[in-house]
Design brief:
By secondary structure, this protein is α/β, with parallel strands linked by helices. The protein has a single domain, classed as P-loop containing nucleotide triphosphate hydrolases (Rossmann fold). The chain is 40% helix and 25% strand. The protein contains nine helices and ten strands. Helix 6 links the parallel strand 7 and strand 8. Helix 3 runs parallel beside helix 5, helix 4 packs across helix 5 and helix 5 packs parallel to helix 6. The protein is globular. The structure holds adenosine-5'-diphosphate and magnesium ion. Adenosine-5'-diphosphate (ADP) binds next to strand 2 and helix 1.
């Protein structure tokens, strides 16, 4: 069984079909890089995986549970699929440590002391132990995004979903975030990453997917697909991102 299975999955917003009968299976440990023009449905595809958007057709199974299940099962899926957004979405009034400790206290019912000692380890992992007691506004964008990654990891997800995690960052800050993501991939985390960082796709991705109009149009090995784009539209797209 694959950890994520799209079965003719569709998503409509009113009359607009944003995901069009997507079939896709993602195995544990894969690092899937998702690219495509603006509006092609990349964010929606990610958001359906953790139930932030409800699918309107077909089925979508995450770690054996259908996102259609609702209730407690949907909460379980949300826990298993951590999400990192372009805008870091940290709680502004909380310190880095409190941001990371929040989920485990709420979702896993840990005591404050337990949650905070785990949170400190996670901040260390993303290179921010020394910034634990700073609020987000006192951190750089790259540091905030690393806190957001630590926060997502804190509830022990099986899958990490990244939606253009470096798009809001200055070039010199992108790398520190990409390095944390590279480390996660090396540890075997299953990841689905929307990004236009093609060097990351080539070096870290195990699979590259090109989406157009809510459909998967290319699915292959990153280095091969980049070196030999199987469609003119992908070739044009790659020329514009690199
Ligand atoms: P991408 O991430 O590839 O740029 P999105 O998944 O964000 O694409 O959006 C795909 C399409 O769905 C776009 O046309 C967008 O305007 C539309 N869309 C996204 N979210 C909503 C929403 N909540 N309500 C209506 N339309 C939406
Ligand atoms: Mg998007």
């Amino acid at each position: 069984m694959s950890i994520i299975e799209f079965h003719k999955t569709s998503k409509h917003f009113g009359d607009l079909k944003v995901l069009d009968e997507v079939d896709l299976a993602i195995e544990e440990g894969e690092v899937v890089v998702l690219i495509g023009p603006s509006g092609s449905g990349k964010s929606t595809l990610l958001r359906c995986i953790n139930g932030l958007e409800q699918i309107t057709g077909g089925d979508l199974i995450v770690d054996g549970i259908s996102v259609r299940a609702g209730g407690r099962k949907l909460r379980q899926i949300r826990q298993e699929a951590g999400m990192v957004f372009q805008q870091f979405n940290l709680f502004p009034q909380m310190t880095a440590l409190q941001n990371v400790a929040f989920g485990p206290r709420k979702v896993r019912g840990l005591s404050r002391a337990e949650a905070e000692s785990q949170a400190l380890l996670l901040l260390e992992k993303v290179g921010l132990k020394e910034r634990a007691h700073h609020v987000p506004s006192a951190l750089s964008g790259g540091q905030q995004q690393r806190v957001a990654i630590a926060r997502a990891l804190a509830v022990r997800p099986k899958v990490m979903l990244f939606d253009e995690p470096t798009s809001a960052l200055d070039p010199e800050l992108k790398q520190e975030v990409l390095n944390v993501m590279r480390q996660l991939a090396q540890e075997g985390m299953t990841m689905v990453v929307v990004t236009h960082e093609m060097s990351f796709a080539r070096q870290v991705g195990s699979r590259l997917i090109f989406m157009e109009h809510g459909k998967i149009s290319v699915d292959g090995h990153p280095a091969e697909v980049i070196a030999n784009p199987p469609s003119d539209r992908l070739r044009d797209f790659l020329q514009h991102v690199e």
